[in-house]
Every structure is written in C-alpha cells, then in structure tokens.
Amino acid sequence: MAFLEIERAFKGYGPKWDRTEVLADINLEVEVGEFVAIVGFSGAGKTTLINLLSGLVTPDRGAARFDGKPITGPGPERGIVFQNYSLLPWLTVHENIALAVDQVFPQWTAAQRREQVGKFIAMVNLTPAAGKLPRELSGGMRQRVAVARSLAMGPKVLLLDEPLSALDALTRANLQDQITRIKREDDTTILLITNDPDEAILLADRVIPLTAGPNATLGMSVPVTIPRPRDRKTIADHPDFKRIRLELVEYLLKSAHSRKATLDRKLVLPDIEPEDLSLPRPVLPWIGRRGPIRRSEIKTAVVEVEK
Amino acid sequence: MRAYCELSQLGKTFPSPKGAAVIVKDFNLKMQKGEFVCLIGHSGCGKSTVLSMVAGLSSVTEGGIILLGKELTGPGPDRGVVFQSPSLLPWLTAFENVMLGINQVFYTASKAERRQIADYYLTVVGLGDAMHKRPAELSQGMRQRVGIARAFALKPRMLLLDEPFGMLDALTRYELQQVLLDLWRTERITALMVTHDVDESLFLSDRIVCMTDGPEATIGDIVPVSFPRPRNRKAIMEHADYAPLRSRLMQFLEVGAHDRIPYVALPASQASVAASV
Questions:
Q1: How close, in Å, is residue A295 to chain B by CA atoms?
Q2: Which residue in chain A is spatially nearest to B128 when comparing CA positions?
Q3: Would you call B169 an interface residue with chain A, using a CB distance cutoff of 8 Å?
Q4: A249 vs B124: CB contact, 8 Å cut-off?
Q5: What is the 3-state secondary structure (H, E, C) of chain A?
Q6: Any idea where the domains of chain B sit in the sequence?
Q7: Average pLDDT value for chain A
Q8: A232, A301, B67, B232: which has the highest count of C-beta atoms within 10 A?
C-alpha cells in the first residue's frame, strides 16, 4: 500500500441539471520520500486534485488515503502551500508561522516553539524579515513564508499547489532551488502541482500529466531519469530532458485537442474582401448600393513586361 | 524584386531633457508576401517600438515603412494587431468583440455574411462553444484566442503580434502557438511577431531578426529558418538544424546583443529567403 493514495476518485461540482465533472477516475500512488509532479492545463482540476489529498474536499466516489487511513479532513501531517500564499495580513512573518506551530505542538514549551519557528524562518533565509508584515514583503518572500509555515508543522508530506506560478522567472528559479534543497536535506515526500513541464522535470522524480478537463484524469507516469543534482542551465541539453518534455507536452496537447474535436458544425466563410476604409464611404449608402467584392470576381491578368 | 513590406532606415527618437533619446536606429528589413518573421531581443530593446510603428500606433521619426508600395502613416484595418493582453471590451461577448471590427471593414456585406465570418474564425480558434461569453467568463488563454480570431477576421494584409503568448502558462502557450500556426497556414498572411522565446520563434517563423540592445537598437543578425511546413513540434525539435540554430540565437542573446556591430545586409537575392511555400 502506498503512502499517499487516491483510488478511482471522481469529483464534480454544481447541481444535477448544471453539473461539471471535474475529475474522473483518478488513481495516484506516492511512496515515502518520493517527489512527484503533476502537470496540467490551467482549469484542468489540479487544485481540486490536491484538495482531495489535503482533505479540503471529499471525492464523490472513490477514496483518498494517507498512510493507509482514509482522509477525512485537513491535518498537520499534510502541509499545503497555496498559490496565493494565504498568510494572515495583520500578523508578522514570525507570528504567521507561530500560529501553525502553536496549534500543532501545544505540549511543547514556549521556548521550544519559538526555536522551531526561528529554525524554519532561517531555513528559507528570512531571518532579517521575521518582524515584517506580509504586505512589506515581495511575492517570492511571502511564498517562502508559506513554505516555512508548512514545513514547521513537521508534515510527513508537502503538497505544493502551483506555489511558483505567480512569481517572476528569477524568483521562481530561486525558490525552485530552495525546494530542491529542502527535498535533499529532509527527504520529505513532496507532491507538486504545476503548469510548467520544465519545472516539473527539473524538480521531480516522476511526472504525471493531468489531461485537460472536464473529466480530467491522470495519464501515464513518466520517470525522470536525469541524475541529481540537476542544473537548470544545462538540463535542457540532456537528451532525456527533451524526450520527457516532448512526451508530456504531446500527451497534454493531444488530450486538449481530442476534447475540442467533438464539435461538429457546418462553417461557412464568405469569400469577400475587406473594404478600403481610407476611401470615403458613400454619404447615403443605401443609394446605388453595391455588395462586397467577392474574391471569385477578382480578375488576375498576366502582364508581360518588355525587356 | 519589390518587397511586400519594407522597413527602410527606420528610427525612433524621443525628446528628453538630456537631448534626444534614440531608441531604434537604422532598422532595415524587407518582407516577402506570406512570410512569417520573428523579432527577438532582450526586454526593453525596442522590439515593440518597431512593431507599433508598423502598426501605426507610434509615430515614425526617421525613415519609413512601405506596405504594398504605399507609405504607412497611421493605424488601419489592413494591419491586424494581436497584443500581449487581448484588450477586449469587457461588456461585449467574444462574438460581439470580433463583430466590432468586421462591421467596419465589411460594411457592404450582409449581416448574415458578417456573422458567418465571426462564427468561422471563433470556431477555428477553438471557441465554438464559448463565443457568446463575456471576457470575464473566459480564461486568459481563451481571451487570447479571441484576440487572434479578431485579427484574422479582418483579412488584414499584415499580421502584427506583440508577444501574444507572453502572459500565458507554458502549456497554453504551446496550444496557442499551434492554433496560430494552423490559421496562418490556411490564410498565409504576412506576419511580424515580437517575442523573446527562442523556441517559439524557431517553431513559427521563416526568418528570425535579432535586435541588439537599446538604446540605438538595430538589427544584429538575421537567421533564416527553413524547417519544412506544415510544421510539427516534435519533428522540428528532432531536426538536425534545430540545435545549431537554437544555440546561434542563444549565443546572440547572451553575447552578441551587447556588441554594437550593426548587421550588414547581403544583396537582396541572398537576404530575402522566400517563405517555403
């Protein structure tokens, strides 16, 4: 039995007469210490999928299990990092993290809890900013606070819901390196959701595509065979990188394409040419009205030029 | 041979307190009919300035732009523009947004025909079942599809694209590149596109114009791209020329763009690589 598991799960929203089936037949198994990335389009249902694991939503059918037990609600053993940081704006960095630590470790002494908070602030290199409010921090720093808050609870698995999508390229690269470091040092089990195939391949041990919704489902898992440590500058030259990326992108684009090809309607494109709007329009257009110029009426003449 | 569109000694100067600020200088480019040209360079080098001068949205201060033998003086429906953000009117549906331009350009056609045009292009870009939604109900990728449909629907003589996929996530970007390429292949509209994505420019274009860093930005290199069409992403990435071309462009962006060695145009016969029809 896998550490983190989803078995034949379905999830949809809305009343019966206007229902959107978001996820269909989701099967996922994540082992201890594994770093798995799920790549999919925006709006495919990636957040719904991670919410099944965090316990924020329950599947309509099927089951989500953690360590053999069904997931019934959120818990500190599963830390989540959201795309929009979700920090309390009136609390400082230290207080935001302390909130989580105090909840999870009520039996500890105040000094122990303070030490725990300080340790994780240092881990994401935010010690100088510990007394600042979220609004005084950049997007990348806020996201690091959110990562520190999740890790300070001592979770057994880290669920990352597009944590880097809202950040600029440079900050993104910086945080990717920090995630890699956390993974290497603590050997945490991580599930990353992203819409960037390159990011998934750079970070994860295994990448699973999520097909375009509605009725999104997980595709074949692709193992990332590129050895660690991986360097973002040279990884693009690795032959496996190109192969894996192409495989993922082709699969995802195909899933999006097949979804659209269902539309069957007769289309007509009139063969008319645009009018030249630099010419004056007739003052009374309904007098001596002419139709548009048809492409079929355009005469092409071959002109011979004398030498 | 006369070019379809010619940018001749094009320059852009802004007055500033410290004297004139020269953004673009001595930009010479000839485009053939049906050619797809990409303009790449670092952010802020003046790529978009060149494009908006061609669009007629920014005044030309030196040189000139000639389209089909006539000098351009302002914006017009003969040049369709796709902006980075789709710039749709939020109170109109996708369909109404596209109809806005069609009603102007095809004013002699019947209403039914005008509606057919909008319906055709919106369906071709993949919005067959969402064309009567307002922009707020559409995702960023879908809004940009409306922007593409709106530009093509006017049957422009030239298509101008200003980093049209810059705000999209990687997957949506791939998807829309395909949409653009499929539509472009059926219509064969001469296109000029600004991008800073090397892979995107290799996938789409016939020629890549590399711009040096500003101020006084100009053409640093012109790279012909001769992959056969119709193009397939997989085949292109595995093509023997792909890696050398890519590294040539990367090399330019990393090193060459900072050198101020203006590009010396070859004689017209060699420089203008006709679109591989």
A1: 12
A2: A263
A3: yes
A4: no
A5: CCCEEEEEEEEEECCHHHCEEEEEEEEEEECCCCEEEEEECCCCCHHHHHHHHHCCCCCCEEEEEECCEECCCCCCCEEEECCCCCCCCCCCHHHHHHHHHHHHCCCCCHHHHHHHHHHHHHHCCCHHHCCCCHHHCCHHHHHHHHHHHHHHCCCCEEEEECCCCCCCHHHHHHHHHHHHHHHHHHCCEEEEEECCHHHHHHHCCEEEEECCCCCECECCCEECCCCCCCCCCCHHHCHHHHHHHHHHHHHHHHHHHHHHCCCCCCCCCCCECCCCCCCCCCCCCCCCCCCCCEHHHCCCCCCCCCC
A6: 5-78+156-271, 91-155
A7: 86
A8: B67
User: What is the reported pTM?
Assistant: 0.76
| Amino acid at site B7 | L
pLDDT of residue A293: 80
Question: Looking at the complex, does the CB of residue A63 fall below 8 Å from at least one CB of chain B?
Answer: no
CA distances from A228 to A34, A180, A204, A244 (A): 14, 10, 10, 16
Contact of B170 with chain A, judged by CB distance below 8 Å, is answered with yes
CB-based contact (8 Å) between A262 and chain B?
Answer: no
Interface contact flag, A270 B116, Cβ < 8 Å: yes
* Chain centroid to CA A268: 38
Report DSSP state, residue B221: E
State whether B107 and A285 contact (CB < 8 Å). Answer: yes
Domains in chain A, CATH or no CATH each: 4-260 (3.40.50.300)
Stronger pLDDT, A228 or A192, i.e. the higher one? A192
CATH class of B5-78+156-271: alpha beta
User: Given pLDDT bands bounded at 50, 70 and 90, which one contains residue A259?
Assistant: low
What does residue A45 show for φ and ψ, rounded to 5 degrees? 120, 20
Best probe of the A interface among B171, B176, B251, by most A CBs < 10 A, is: B171
CB–CB of A274 and B78 under 8 A?
yes
Tell me whether residues B233 and A250 touch, CB distance under 8 A. Answer: yes
- Chain B residue closest in CA terms to A168: B167
Query: Between B41 and A98, where is the model more confident?
Result: A98
CB contact under 8 A, B124 and A267: yes
